Structures are given as C-alpha cells and as structure tokens.
Amino acid sequence: xxxxxxxxxxxxxxxxxxxxxxxxxxxxxxxxxxxxxxxxxxxxxxxxxxxxxxxxxxxxxxxxxxxxxxxxxxxxxxxxxxxxxxxxxxxxxxxxxxxxxxxxxxxxxxxxxxxxxxxxxxxxxxxxxxxxxxxxxxxxxxxxxxxxxxxxxxxxxxxxxxxxxxxxxxxxxxxxxxxxxxxxxxxxxxxxxxxxxxxxxxxxxxxxxxxxxxxxxxxxxxxxxxxxxxxxxxxxxxxxxxxxxxxxxxxxxxxxxxxxxxxxxxxxxxxxxxxxxxxxxxxxxxxxxxxxxxxxxxxxxxxxxxxxxxxxxxxxxxxxxxxxxxxxxxxxxxxxxxxxxxxxxxxxxxxxxxxxxxxxxxxxxxxxxxxxxxxxxxxxxxxxxxxxxxxxxxxxxxxxxxxxxxxxxxxxxxxxxxxxxxxxxxxxxxxxxxxxxxxxxxxxxxxxxxxxxxxxxxxxxxxxxxxxxxxxxxxxxxxxxxxxxxxxxx
Length: 490
What we know:
signal; alpha/beta; Amidase_CS; FAAH2; 490 residues; Amidase domain-containing protein; eleven-stranded mixed beta sheet; Amidase_dom; two-stranded antiparallel ribbon; 35% helix; globular
C-alpha cells in the first residue's frame, strides 16, 4: 500500500505519526467538514469527488516512484496535502463570486497564481470558503452564502474577510489555507479562530486572480498569505506561495531569538474611534513579555508610538488615494454594482424593506465612502510618513514588535456594525507594508481565542515566523474547540 508523508504540513496531527494513504487523509478531512460545516457554514462549495481522485493519483505516484519518497518530497513538498481556499481566489471549476449575488454564476476557468503554485507543489484543494461581501468587512456574511460562525462559540463571528478559512481551519476541518489581507483579512480571522496566519511583506506573494482586483494605491497594500493550524506550516506555505520572490526573504537563514530585539506596544494610544483593548488581551501580551524575558534572558522594551492613534485615518486616506497613474481607485459602490454604480441610499431603503441584494455592512461602507476625500490631509500624510520612519528605524533587521490583533475578543454576530474602526489595529500594517504573523495565545475566560500580532521590518518575515514557533510551544498554539460540538478533532 502506498504510504503518505506530509510531515511538515501535517505536523501535530495524527498523520505525523502514522503511515496513511493520501486517500485516507483527504477522506478524513472530508468527513470532518461534513460534521462541522452544517454548524459553522465555512465551506461554501466543495470539490470532494475531484479531491479523492487526485489523492488516488498521489498514492499511485508514490507507489510507482523508484527513487524513494524523499525524491517526491523535494519535488512536491505538499504532495497529497488537503488545502482550502478563500472563495475570492480563482480556483479552477469553483465559484468566484466574493459573496456578490450578481456574480453567483461566475466560475473560475483558471487558478490564481498563488493557488497554482500550491497545486504544483502537490496540494489537493477540498473547496472554497466564505468571505464578506466584496472582502471589505470583518464579518464573513453575504446574501449568497449566508453567515459563517466561530467554532469556539457559534454566536460569535469568525472574522473577515477570510472568515471561512479561519473557521474551517479553527474547527479542525482543514489544516492549511489561502487568505488575502488588505486591512487584516488574514489576521483577524486567525485571531478570532485561534490559528496562525501570516501577512507577508508587501509585494512578495502574487495577488493576481482574486476579486475584487485592487486599484489606485491598493495593490501595494493587498497581501496574499497562508493561514495554518500549526505555526511550523507557515514557512513552507509561504515559501511555495511566494515562488521565486521567496529568495528575498532568506527564509532558510537560522533565527536565534536571543539575538533579536523585542518591543511591546499595549494599545494604539487611545483613539476615540476605537474600542479600548480588552484587559484579557493586555494581560496575555504581558505574559508573552514575561515568558520571553524569562526564557531568552532578554529585556522586552515597552514603547509608545503616538502616530498609531491615527491608524484608521491613515488607512482610509491611503486606500482612497489615486495610483501612480493619477486614477482614483474603483469605488465600493461601483464594485457592488459590478461596474455600474449602485446608489447606497436607495440600497439602504431596499434593505429596510428586505429586498436589497447587499448586506447592511456593504451598504454602510458605500455610504461612508461618499463623504471620504480622495486627497488625504497633509496632517495625516505627515503622520503616516512619521510612523513609517519610526517603525522602520525601531525594527531594523533584528526587531520584533508585539501589538494587539484587535481591541476585542471575537464579537457577537453583527456587533462590528457598532465598532467599524476596530480593524485599524491590523489595517495600519498593510499601509506600512510590514510583515506580520498572527499568533494564538490560549483561550479567554469565555472560551474565546486570545492572540497578538508579531511585526517585523520589511523582508524580515522569518523573524515573526520564528517567534510564532516559540510562542506555539510556550502557550500551546491552537486549542481544540471540538468538545463544544462533542466531535472528534483530527
């Protein structure tokens, strides 16, 4: 019988110790999805039959390989590994609607470059996962697929816009996946669902093949990256997804945490637009500081960065700024209409009557956009440039910054409508182009995931990735939510 080896990518699971076939692995994840998806509504379209056929081909390939499995592992590092993909990415034969009713018949004819690289490495996609409407909200809810739920508490949100990925991985029904992030859309779902994620340095992973396409200055802020149940899977996933650009990151270089400089920023300085940071998150970050100092014999410096208080204003101003060609970005109202602008006030009226094809969140974003200037104020530009300089000087090539992922634990469904600017804790790093790793830190007294962001200087992705590995061992990493369902987690 052909054996299946995916030690890197399935570390920590049963498959690390067992010799099993690829068909058995894929079938195990299919079974798990079928158990939990009726509860969490994360996977919106499966390709189970095709995945099992591809797994059988993997088993045949391994059985016929005369050079040994090590040869296959070098050439196809993800051979037979099941993955899931955010529905906003093109995956051949799968829908690519981004939760927009008017795109419900759109089927991808090709793969997005990042997805193609994973498939070329041997990965087997199981299907596509839910996202917020047009990927611009922190709750994965739309009128095409419905609402995605948090596996730790079904009454809480899974985050967005990659909330389907966060939920399916956090529930143990997938082990690795593909997400995108222009304001925290990888990191927020990873935080709320207790898993690891990485927003790479801007420009490292190809962003093509996802909807909606960025415009204006947005291509410099959008990032594609991995979402994983285990920290050690981030590095191989990033290396593959980045393709030749991975060489810029020196991912193979050894990292000694004792030689790094660590900084801690407990909050943004008190923006009146944002919620105060939950005391449990402040305490969790303090415990990380204490553990780093005790284990590594270093001193973590607490710093205050006053420009962070303007994170939302900076993010909003830069997202609406014209590109190098002088063209303003496509408006959200135009994206909602598929190229033909919708009228937000009219959609709001239709929403109150229950006949709008758009969510309240999407309509609200379009309304806010109407009053936003495409020319950022000189003050906000100065704050952005000052913040960029200060962080780049602070971090250099050997610094790691600890910063809250979000001021709140996973909120109840629809609650973010009342706290729409809280994503700024993640969004600011998209504007700055810095690499960030999201790391889980156990559970709150309510049983919800805790976590924090690890930020480094440009192209220093290996530093927060190495720190995440350490913190996974120190704090336990992903925690099994299966007891809430009475189901077994693989």
